[in-house]
């Protein structure tokens, strides 16, 4: 089980608030930490840790809203650069703060595939045999492809590696990735190399425009991540950005972590009618009727985009778009972000007159992206040629395997509900040759013997798949998405949905569009923006220009800390009693900061006062726990996990009072968490770090 440690709320946009620099100077830390996944209720964690512990002071907590003091006071940067770091493809876009209505997308990438648009570049990276960065994107893939097989096995080629951050339960700075040749490399290095590449590309383009070297300090950076990512994964991206030199560690507000469906939602507010396809109505829109081929509108949209691509500059409305003007106070809509790795769903409500957004239901989704179709294709190849051969071929001929998957990608995009003619997939010569050496018979013989009726051999050296066979590869992934959507629409918070925005690269699939249309049965209008693959990127730029646009989020989990309370006979379980210096304590008490699915306003702060159980403590350790349940009494309960640590260092300060008061403040409502602590006796702000990545 992978636990969601994301706090749908809390720190990266903190970076946008005017007083965040104060927080950062007071040592708000995001360092590294480990997820503790307990399969069952555990014995007393506090006793096993041997911590002296903390106990709450009365009153136990104060809740306040600091949105006014943290209000966004206008950009202090010249330009906002957003990086959409995708599972399958990536890119960047930017806007100058003086011209926020002009969003510029990155220069055209060199390379490209037949049948695949190159508005972004593949998320592929190549390291030299001595593990130095060589290239990224099309350049990496093409260079790797051209290497001699005897040479290529020494090079480290990686693709689709972003999903590792979602699927790794105990993510840490030491987490490793496997290159195509089977060699292992540190994930933090790969992510840092990729971000450094985008930094170099963007700075070069900005410098060329300015006619002088552009200063990185004048850029606010935005990195997009799936909304369903856990807190360690978000922190990992921030750590990679520090390592890449994107922003300095002592200036964290220069980088914002943006949630992908939120970015899409922000961009969709600006849509004009000619910039979208409406497949949820019975009327013609853009010359396209939903009763015709469901993919026709998308094809038309691509042609429209291709004809406009010369400028690379998108103009967005200063005010809300025409579609948005149909929304009234309290109207609800869903954004479904269908990417390469994950599908993210978020539910927003419009708040007028400013058009601010309120999250109505915590972000949900799962690993249902388009790479699931690639895995199904691989399973089909294993069925025909044997898993032993496919595993061996991937290791021995890694560049040829990449070629085969590129050929499949092009054909995958041609799949449609009404297609009748077969789809041909080129098999690389080395696949045919290596199979004959490996098995002693031909590829054609393997196909005849496999009993896979819907895949035939073509004498031109191609696999010929009938359309039903291709559609079958889509089915498991699309079924997951539709099931998730069905469950979501049954929630009371998700009733009366006016629009469903389908965004992300996978949203271009006519098969997915038709499945969503069939599931909704006209309950909501389905809107697909033109240039759907750039929706998140453009929205991330708008978010960087005004990070306070999302005013209310939902917490995906209950968060709290483990504390000691005075033991009360009859109230507390006997096995929780701990005697220290003659005092009886109840251990493992869960002191709740925020509950699961609680609405949290931007900048909302929860303040707690604690005192060390042992007065002489110099370092006070507070363990942060989370749970999917709303009511949690003890940190040892089933389903409660440790997800972070606050370390309060009071070394060198003397307290004149008997019970030293440590105020701990945690701020929610943003895309990450931030925290600080104050030693009340001396007014000294002590170091506080939430560490989600350390082992």
Automatic annotation (TrEMBL):
Ranges where the record places region Disordered: 42-70
Principal place of residence: cytoplasm
Cellular component GO terms, alphabetical: cytoplasm; nucleus
Keyword flag Cytoplasm: yes
Alphabetical UniProt keywords: Acetylation, ATP-binding, Cytoplasm, Nucleotide-binding, Nucleus
GO molecular function: ATP binding
Cellular compartment(s): Cytoplasm; Nucleus
Composition skew (Polar residues), residue ranges: 57-70
Subunit structure, interactors included: Interacts with SORL1 (via cytosolic C-terminus); this interaction affects SORL1 internalization and subcellular localization.
Family: Belongs to the heat shock protein 70 family.
Function: Adapter protein for SORL1, but not SORT1. Delays SORL1 internalization and affects SORL1 subcellular localization.
Name under which the protein is recorded: Heat shock 70 kDa protein 12A
Organism field: Oncorhynchus kisutch (Coho salmon)
Lineage: Eukaryota, Metazoa, Chordata, Craniata, Vertebrata
């Amino acid at each position: 089980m992978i636990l969601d440690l994301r706090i749908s709320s809390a720190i990266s946009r903190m970076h946008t608030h005017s007083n965040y620099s104060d927080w950062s100077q007071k040592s708000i830390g995001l360092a590294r930490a480990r997820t503790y996944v307990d399969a069952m209720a555990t014995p007393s964690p506090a006793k096993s840790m041997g911590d002296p512990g903390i106990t709450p002071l009365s009153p136990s907590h104060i809740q306040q809203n600091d949105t006014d003091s943290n209000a966004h006071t206008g950009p202090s940067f010249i330009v906002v650069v957003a990086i959409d770091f995708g599972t399958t493809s990536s890119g960047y876009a930017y806007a100058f703060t003086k011209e926020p209505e002009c969003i510029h997308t990155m220069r055209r990438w060199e390379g490209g595939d037949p049948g695949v648009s190159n508005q972004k570049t593949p998320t592929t990276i190549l390291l030299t045999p001595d593990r130095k960065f060589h290239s990224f994107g099309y350049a990496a893939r093409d260079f790797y492809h051209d290497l001699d097989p005897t040479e290529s096995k020494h090079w480290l080629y990686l693709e689709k590696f972003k999903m590792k951050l979602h699927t790794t339960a105990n993510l840490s700075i030491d987490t490793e990735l496997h290159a195509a040749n089977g060699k292992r490399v540190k994930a933090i290095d790969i992510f840092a190399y990729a971000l450094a590449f985008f930094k170099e590309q963007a700075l070069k383009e900005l410098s060329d425009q300015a006619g002088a070297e552009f200063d990185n300090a004048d850029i606010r950076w935005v990195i997009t991540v799936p909304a369903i990512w856990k807190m360690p994964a978000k922190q990992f991206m921030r750590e990679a950005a520090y390592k890449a030199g994107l922003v300095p560690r002592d200036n964290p507000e220069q980088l914002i972590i943006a949630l992908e469906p939120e970015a899409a939602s922000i961009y969709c507010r600006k849509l004009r009618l000619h910039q979208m396809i409406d497949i949820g109505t019975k009327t013609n829109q853009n010359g396209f009727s939903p009763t015709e081929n469901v993919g026709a509108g998308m094809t038309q949209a691509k042609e429209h985009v291709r004809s406009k691509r010369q400028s690379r500059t998108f103009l967005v409305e200063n005010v809300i778009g025409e579609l948005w003007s149909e929304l009234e106070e309290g109207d609800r809509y869903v954004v479904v972000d269908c990417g390469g790795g994950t599908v993210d769903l978020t539910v927003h409500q419009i708040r007028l007159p400013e058009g601010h957004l309120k999250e109505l239901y915590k972000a949900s989704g799962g690993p249902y992206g388009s790479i699931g179709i690639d895995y199904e294709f691989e399973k089909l190849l294993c069925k025909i040629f044997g898993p032993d051969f496919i595993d061996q071929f991937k290791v021995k001929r890694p560049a040829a395997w990449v070629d085969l998957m590129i050929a499949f990608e092009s054909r995958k995009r041609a799949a449609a509900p009404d297609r009748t003619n077969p789809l041909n997939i080129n098999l690389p010569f080395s696949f045919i040759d290596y199979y004959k050496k490996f098995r002693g018979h031909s590829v054609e013989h393997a196909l005849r013997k496999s009993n896979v009726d819907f895949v035939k051999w073509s004498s031109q050296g191609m696999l010929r798949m009938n359309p039903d066979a291709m559609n079958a590869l889509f089915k498991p992934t699309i079924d997951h998405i539709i099931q998730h959507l069905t469950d979501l629409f049954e929630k009371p918070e998700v009733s009366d949905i006016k629009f469903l925005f389908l965004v992300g690269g996978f949203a271009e699939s006519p098969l997915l569009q038709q499945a969503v249309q069939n599931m909704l049965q006209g309950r909501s209008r389905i809107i697909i923006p033109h240039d759907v693959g750039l929706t998140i990127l453009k929205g991330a730029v708008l978010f960087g220009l005004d990070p306070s646009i999302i005013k209310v989020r939902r917490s995906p989990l209950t968060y709290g800390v483990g504390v000691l309370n005075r033991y009360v006979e009859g109230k507390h379980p006997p096995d929780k009693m701990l005697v220290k210096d003659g005092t009886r304590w109840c251990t493992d008490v869960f002191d709740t900061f925020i509950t699961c699915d609680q609405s949290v306003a931007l900048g909302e702060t929860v303040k707690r006062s604690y005192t060390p159980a042992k007065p002489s403590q110099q370092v006070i350790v507070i363990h942060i726990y989370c749970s999917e349940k709303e009511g949690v009494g003890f940190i040892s309960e089933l389903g409660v996990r440790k997800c972070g640590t606050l370390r309060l260092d009071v070394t060198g300060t003397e307290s004149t009072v008997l019970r030293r008061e440590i105020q701990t403040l945690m701020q929610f409502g943003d895309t990450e968490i931030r925290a600080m602590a104050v030693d009340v006796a001396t007014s000294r702000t002590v170091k506080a770090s939430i560490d989600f990545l350390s082992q």
